[in-house]
UniProtKB/TrEMBL annotation:
Organism: Faecalibacter bovis
InterPro entries (alphabetical): Acyl_CoA_acyltransferase
Domain of life: Bacteria
Name this polypeptide is given: GNAT family N-acetyltransferase
Length: 193
């Protein structure tokens, strides 16, 4: 299995991935926001997603990033793994890759995630995320509007977007090795121009 940054050629998988999200929501009986294939395709074309493949070159998993508040925050979102590969370790590889993408592409941004998944909470914690109240996450209406398709959206709104069933997690070490390397490369590139 391998994980890489997604690109425009991967857009052909967007409908399949959206089906996986819906099936996962049904299986887990928890809220998962619906995704639109066009939205996922845009993530792939912009290099704001990672995709995994099994040894037969069949899609195995996916995740993407989005920025808010003029890149003050970057969310790692949409982690999905093909059902027969869950517990194989590929989810952890995808999570690490999307985290690295976030830190290198947006080294000055706090990284956050909201989830109901214990496995995702554990992965985030190992990467250095800390649980926080929703007040410490982006306050962007665009982000929170993405929750509208979740079956628990009414809980979020009943609580004035301060809490829900999801747990909010933030990584805010803006001086980690990924960020240092990204800043160094940016400085090296500007020196060469």
């Amino acid at each position: 299995m391998y994980v890489r940054i997604a690109n425009a050629d991967d857009a052909k998988y967007s409908e399949l991935l959206c089906e996986w999200y819906e099936e996962s929501a049904r299986m887990r009986k928890t809220g998962i926001a619906k995704r639109n294939p066009v939205y996922l395709e845009r993530k792939m074309r912009n290099g704001n997603a990672v995709i995994a493949f099994d040894d037969d070159d069949q899609v195995a998993g996916f995740s993407y990033i989005e920025t808010y508040e003029e890149e003050k925050f970057v969310v790692n979102s949409g982690l999905i793994v093909r059902t027969d590969l869950r517990s194989s370790g590929i989810g952890k590889e995808i999570k690490q890759a999307v985290f690295k993408l976030s830190r290198t592409k947006f080294p000055n941004s706090k990284v956050f995630s909201i989830t109901t998944s214990l496995a995702v909470m554990r992965m985030n914690t190992k990467l250095g995320y800390k649980p926080v109240t929703f007040s410490e996450l982006t306050q962007s209406d665009e982000f929170w509007n993405g929750c509208k398709s979740c079956k628990n959206y009414h809980i979020l709104m009943d609580n004035d977007r301060e809490r829900c069933i999801c747990t909010g997690l933030v990584y805010d070490n803006l001086d980690d090795d990924y960020a240092k390397e990204a800043r160094k490369q940016k400085n090296d590139n500007s020196d060469n121009e």
